[in-house]
Amino acid sequence: MLRTIPLSMAEAVDDPQWVQNLESTVDSSFETITKVSGDIIFFEIPGIPMPFVVMWLLAAAIIISFYFGFIQFRGIKVAWDTLRGKYSSPDDPGEIPHYQALTSAVSGTVGLGNIAGVGVAVTLGGPGATFWMILAGLFGMATKFAECTLGVKYREIRADGTVSGGPFKYLPVAFSKFPKFLSVGLTGLFALAILFFGVGGGNMFQANQTYSQAVEVTGGEDSFLASTSAGLIFGLVLAALIGAVIIGGMKSIGRVTSTLVPLMGGIYVLACFVVILTNIPHIPGAIGDILTGAFTAEGVTGGFIGALVVGLTRSAFSNEAGLGSAPIAHSTVKTRRPVSEGFVAMFEPFIDTVLVCTMTALTIVIADTTFYNETREQVFADDSYDYGGGVVITSDAFAENISWFPTILAVAVALFAISTLITWSYYGQRAWNYLFGDTRTSTLIYRVVFLLFTVAGCILNFGQVLAFADNFLFVCAFVNLLGVYFLLPVIKKEMNEYLADRKSGKLAELGKLDADKDMSVRDLAEANQVRDDSGANRLADPDDDGFGAGGATTPRDRR
Question: 443-491 pLDDT, tens per residue?
């Protein structure tokens, strides 16, 4: 059976002195940054055994769910009708229809978070972390509903028909009653956090786990890749590939990944089904471990609270509910009613976390490999133990039942990683441009820095990469959800009007072409969601990604 080695053990293969010095310098620098930022971000209120920022994320999902009357459950039929395009028309302003906005966002979140992230969850938090991941995913549907509604509500439709939306548009509105220095400061903090999370979670985590799985399938500790020098070369090659897309604009690569990623996702889910269905007698026991472990978490780091925190963290990392990233992508949708995309976006956490993450967790728990159990014991004894990352745990579970699948998984991981790297390079670029100006020189500097972090991800140990990403993930969530809180009444007004118009039949008019409508556009939608009095929307540049000119993340026909 395949085994990996901790990346920190790579010195077993002789590396040139300069490579060892480079690894040592990068590693010590990140260790300092991660520790200092972690101490600040994950502070605990005396007497409460949970970091404040984790409580913030959990409280937001619960409060938003209650505020909207658990719209994620009672609004499913409305969401399905909206997704099918029943209440939208090709004449609507925006760039892509609802179902494309959803599939684009899902293909960006269904990936390493579901493969490596779940492996991390059940290793650090035990099988019980899965329960909290599922619960967080269900509550996260309401969070996604709220933030994606705002992403469309306050978007900017440019003269050429392309769209710019997301937290950078609605946070200034949310904080408008604050003193200017505080409003600008909070939005700037969000930009800084999403920039750092982009290079950490959206970049280094992907590169690190791609390299780790490549080491796994090429021989583990005997692999020709099992050295810092090989990791450096691997990182340079990966950075060159990503750079060809984000600097050179090789749109064909973006088109290929946007086609292959959903295909690989389908193959991955099918493999999960194979493992689960061929071990049907073990399913009740695995579900029992998940349920009992959620409240006892025996022998796991942090006990019950540890399982809860790990589950919530990995859920947020996987489906990005509350982080503010999804509204950037969802804001490009063709619609005149902002809340319509909020309804559609609810499917994202359900598909990503409730379905796919649960299948991964069941695969690992059912397989119950020796490596998984030994790794849990090692992590429990030393939480800094470097086991190669969650992707290795997941890969080992598949190898127990499908011996050849880890090789396929390595390809899937690479494709997921490349797709996510490209997408997050644009998210990070929007943040960089907000902070340092939207000029060619500024953007070029950002892209070079981003690619350097790609290389760093392949030589850092997994624990540091994960901690660095988690630190800034929660800063993103803190600022974004604070803004969402202030705008909840706006969202509720949009939601109630949409539901009332659906009941009266008014929404059915939106599904017709403008020339066939019996009511004027002004009577059907608010003025700021149409480009002119006629409501016409010019065809957008088919190669623009919605984040800026010349994109190549997921090019598609936008007619």
Answer: 888 888 888 888 887 777 666 666 777 777 778 888 999 999 999 999 9
What are the Cα distances from residue 117, in Å, to 143, 361, 392?
20, 10, 11
Closest CA to 78 of 494, 464, 396: 494
CA distance 236 to 232: 6
Buried b / exposed e along 393-418 (16+ C-beta atoms within 10 A): bbbbbbbbbeeebbbbbbebbbbbbb
Residue from 273, 253, 255 nearest 265 by CA: 273
Distance CA 334, CA 328 (A): 14
Q: pLDDT digits over 492-527, tens only?
A: 999 998 898 888 888 877 777 776 676 766 667 765
B/e letters for 72-90, b = 16+ CB within 10 Å, e = fewer, are: beebeebbebbbebebbbe
What is the spatial distance between Cα 174 and Cα 308, in angstroms, rounded to a whole number?
30
Of 358, 364, 355, the closest CA to residue 123 belongs to 364
Return the H-helix or E-strand segment holding 274. Answer: helix 251-277
Q: How far apart (Å, rounded) are the C-alpha atoms in residues 124 and 296?
A: 14
CA distance 81 to 87: 8
Find how far residue 535's CA is from the centre of its chain: 33
